[in-house]
Hints:
single chain, mainly alpha
Amino acid sequence: MEHKTKFIFPIMITAIIVFVVSAVVTWANIGLRADFVTRWLSAFILGWPVAAFTAFIAIPPVRRLAGELAALLDRKF
Length: 77
């Protein structure tokens, strides 16, 4: 199960984040126009694969770095 989770988690979390962020950025750039939903979904469809690919690459080193940082903080406090 852990092996599958390693692939499913980045896909799900990036979908949620890109869905929200693309809506906010689209709204900030164009406001609530008649074509807002079309432009938002276009941004989401473009951004989600980029975010998922980035997550697959970034998660392992960031996880290691976070562990090292937590260990460093434990030693200092």
